[in-house]
Each structure stands twice: as structure tokens, then as C-alpha cells.
């Protein structure tokens, strides 16, 4: 009898230990990104994972699926909304179909400089935009950094708006981007990043506009000859999570997710800002012809009507006033 009781007790202890281990095992969150693994988006994802594991004592961690391995941005965002993907990072323009006001960030020359963009994204305007995503089954965790968009093409150096006329250029699906390039006389063609290299190689499009980090990590310089540093629009990224999954977590883990996402975003901004000069130098070594001192004034004047078109279609006058008010704030 004693042996049986001892055996029963041992089995009970083992069962309890096993049950305890099961309750504290890590919940792995699937994180989708279009960017290559070498891009700072993926590096920030790794930092996000490190921070999250530390803040939750290992209860949550992240598995990164880079290179559009879970699909292009449409599939990734739809997956997050439907719950088949836990989290994703994508350009703010890619959420514009749900929250049109996000397109305000894409209006050319909306931001004076990088510091101005960060003040807006990290302030009330940015938080209000993240909150709007909750209506579509997503929790907006943080803004990450894509950077200033520059133009590349295979036809000629771009120094003035006249040089853009007639060029077939890949853009985002943002109405603000598309309208801007129409005003410049180009033929804009939205398409996912995963399709862009082949489209340039096959001459389906002549040109594209992305921040330098993406130009480098996606190796678009291999199929583009001319780079012009136009800084025509600041491009933000948004990290989102399935809202039902987020809401089901304990408050402490929710807090950890938001904090870790935002701290990883700060880390990525630092990487991007410190790496731009090296990327330009490396692009020159790779054979690209670079126009560095592009006068943005004529481009601003040519695309100004796009702001009025956007406001007429989607509203946002108060948001634009708030962005302008932050222009010279400290």
C-alpha cells in the first residue's frame, strides 16, 4: 500500500510539474515582413523579440517571417485581421484602404525633416491613427521607420520635375503617392515589393521610389542605373497585431508588447539614420549614378495640388493643421 501511495504521489507531482511547465511555455507570435532578412525591419524584429522575451520573462516570443514568406502586404494584413498571422509590419500606405487619413503621411513634403516626422508619429496624431486600426481587427502597436523616399530609374538622371515626365514608376497604392506622380507627369503603377525586382528587370516599369534601406536590402540597384535623392516623402511603417489576440492577453503582457514594439522602433530609427551615408557610398561603388543635391522646391510646387485633392476626397484638415503646428516644435 505504501508503495502504491508513493507511486501515486510521484505521478501526481510529475503531472503537476508538467502542467506548470505547460502554463509558462512561450507563446510564439508569427511576425510577417516583406523586407529581406538583411533589412533593418528584420533586425528591428529581432530586437523586438529580445525585448519582449525580457519583459515577459519568456512568456512571449516572436518568430520572424521575412522576404514576404507569409505573402505580400495584402495577404499579411488580411492574415493579421483574420488571426492566421499574429503580427505584421508594413508601410502606412498599405493600411490606407481601411484608414484613408493615414495617406496624409504620404503627401509629398508633408514633413519638414526627420525630427518633424518623429514628433508627429510619436504624438497624438500618430496615436489617433494607430487607434483607428482597432476598427479593423488590428491593434496598432508602433510606428517604425522606413525613411525618406528617393527616386531611381533606368532612363536618365532626375534633377527637376520635367525629368520625371513620361516615366513608368512603381509606387505604393497610396492615393497621395499616385496623385503626386501623376502631377509630375509620370505613369504610376502600384505593385508589391516582392514583384518589383522582376518588373524592373523585365522593364515593366522604368523606375521606383523607396527609402535607401529598401533599395539596398532588396538589391534594386542591380536593375536600376540612376538614383536621385529627392526626399519627396517620409515613409512610416506600422507594426500591427491581431486585436482579439492582443485583447486576450493579460494587461502586463499587453503593456510589454507596446513598450517592446516602440523601443525596437527607436532602435531601428537609429540604425537607419546612422547607415544612410554608407548606403549611398555603397550604391556608388555598385555602379549607380547618384544625384545628391536635388532642389525640392520645384517638386513641392508641382505636387501641391495633391494636398487639396486629398483633403477634398478624405478630409483631414485638422490633422494637417496639427502636423503643421509640430513643424518647428522642440
Characteristic key phrases:
330 residues, alpha/beta, 9-stranded mixed sheet, 20% strand, disordered N terminus
**What is the H-and-E element order?**
HEHEHEHHEEHEHEHEHHEHHH
Kindly state the number of beta strands. Answer: 9
Helices, by number, come to 13
Low-confidence stretches: 1-25
**Helix content class:** 40-55%
Determine the mean pLDDT: 91
Major β-sheet, in short? 9 strands, mixed
Quick one: overall form? globular
SS-derived structural category = alpha/beta
Gyration radius (Cα, Å) is: 23 Å
Content of β-strand? 15-25%
Intertermini distance: 78 Å
Q: What this model shows, in words?
A:
- The protein has 13 helices and nine strands.
- Helix 2 (40-55) runs antiparallel to helix 10 (251-285) and helix 6 runs antiparallel to helix 12 (305-314).
- The chain has helices at residues 2-24, 40-55, 73-82, 114-121, 124-132, 175-183, 193-201, 212-217, 243-248, 251-285, 296-303, 305-314, 317-325; strands at residues 27-33, 60-65, 87-91, 138-153, 168-171, 187-190, 207-211, 226-242, 289-291.
- 48% of the residues lie in helices and 20% in strands.
- The longest helix has 35 residues, at 251-285.
- It is an alpha/beta fold.
- Mean pLDDT is 91; it is low at 1-25.
Amino acid at each position: 500500500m505504501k508503495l502504491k501511495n508513493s507511486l501515486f504521489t510521484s505521478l501526481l507531482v510529475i503531472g503537476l510539474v508538467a502542467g506548470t511547465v505547460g502554463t509558462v511555455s512561450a507563446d510564439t507570435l508569427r511576425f510577417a515582413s516583406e523586407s529581406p532578412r538583411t533589412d533593418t525591419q528584420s533586425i528591428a524584429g529581432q530586437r523586438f523579440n529580445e525585448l519582449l522575451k525580457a519583459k515577459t520573462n519568456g512568456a512571449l516570443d516572436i518568430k520572424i517571417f521575412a522576404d514576404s514568406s507569409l505573402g505580400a502586404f495584402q495577404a499579411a494584413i488580411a492574415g493579421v485581421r483574420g488571426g492566421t498571422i499574429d503580427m505584421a509590419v508594413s508601410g502606412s500606405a498599405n493600411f490606407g484602404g481601411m484608414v484613408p487619413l493615414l495617406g496624409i503621411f504620404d503627401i509629398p513634403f508633408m514633413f519638414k525633416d526627420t525630427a518633424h516626422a518623429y514628433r508627429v508619429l510619436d504624438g497624438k496624431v500618430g496615436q489617433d491613427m494607430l487607434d483607428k486600426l482597432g476598427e479593423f481587427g488590428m491593434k496598432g502597436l508602433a510606428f517604425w521607420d522606413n525613411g525618406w523616399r528617393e527616386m531611381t530609374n533606368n532612363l536618365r538622371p532626375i534633377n527637376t520635375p520635367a525629368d520625371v515626365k513620361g516615366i513608368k514608376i512603381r509606387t505604393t497604392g497610396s492615393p497621395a503617392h499616385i496623385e503626386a506622380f501623376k502631377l509630375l507627369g509620370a505613369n504610376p503603377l502600384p505593385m508589391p515589393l516582392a514583384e518589383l525586382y522582376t518588373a524592373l528587370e523585365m522593364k515593366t516599369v522604368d523606375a521606383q521610389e523607396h527609402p535607401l534601406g529598401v533599395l539596398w536590402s532588396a538589391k534594386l540597384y542591380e536593375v536600376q542605373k540612376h538614383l536621385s535623392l529627392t526626399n519627396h516623402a517620409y515613409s512610416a511603417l506600422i507594426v500591427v497585431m491581431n486585436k482579439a489576440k492582443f485583447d486576450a492577453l493579460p494587461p502586463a503582457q499587453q503593456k510589454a508588447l507596446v513598450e517592446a514594439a516602440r523601443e525596437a522602433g527607436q532602435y531601428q530609427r537609429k540604425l537607419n539614420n546612422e547607415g544612410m551615408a554608407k548606403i549611398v557610398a555603397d550604391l556608388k561603388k555598385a555602379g549607380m549614378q547618384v544625384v545628391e543635391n536635388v532642389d525640392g522646391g520645384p517638386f513641392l510646387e508641382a505636387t501641391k495640388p495633391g494636398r487639396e485633392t486629398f483633403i477634398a476626397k478624405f478630409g483631414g484638415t485638422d490633422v494637417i493643421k496639427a502636423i503643421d503646428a509640430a513643424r518647428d516644435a522642440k
